[in-house]
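Reference record
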Amino acid sequence: MPTVDLSERAVIDVDGEDAESFLQNLITTNLDDLAPDDLKPGALLSPQGKILFQFLVSRKAGGGFRLDLPQAPADDLVKRLTLYRLRAKAAISKQSEALVRISFGDDSAASQTESTYRDRRFAAEPVYRAYGAAPAANSDEREWTLLRIRHGVAEAPVDFALGDAFPHDINFDQIEGVSFRKGCFVGQEVVSRMQHRGTARRRVLIASAEQSLPEAGTPVTVNGREIGTLGSTVDNTGLALVRIDRVKDAMDGGAAILAGDIAIRLAIPPEHRFTFPAETQEA
């Protein structure tokens, strides 16, 4: 059973009698569906529907909520939540350098304790995230990156830039990261319109090649025209955020899709329900 320590993580605690209603009216996740032992993706959007902060949300054993995210944007998220709090009875605090461990594989369920949560981004494979005391790590973050790539799970900043992507772009609609039935949240109108009109232009796809892929941020091109960028990579596999209509055109026309100067194949992640569009959308 691979167990990985994640570095550079922070945890933000949101406590108090209004904690749930406060977050429910702000973030993309439907907290009504969040079980005590579940962990789900979430985001705080701009009014224009772009992802400003990406995190994982879970219920704490003693009440309140835990937001797990990279250290770099954590202070800004605390400030933004405090700005929105107004008169809500909610306390917001940050734990820097939080101990976060992940276990996955067929026997990972055996390692569960009261401080572990099932990561619901991974529908077909048991993945658990632990806070505080946990089994000792026996693998490195490379194994975790490979797992994310295999399931098409994107994380900022390596796979997309905060402030530059809609939830649909990173497949949040496929992994319970955004709710279209819970009611209002910041940016909800724009995101709901994209959902109902089916106008998502970009998606995270799984990239593969016959040789090692270049580093994250490398442009993905077709006939010299950029259609996206490469994200996380390990050896000859990785993630890419791309225009899916132009990927379909390239595949239909037999044109090479390149990451740098390396030919790649792009595929929809397993368990995801979206398809390639029939026609190219306007630029």
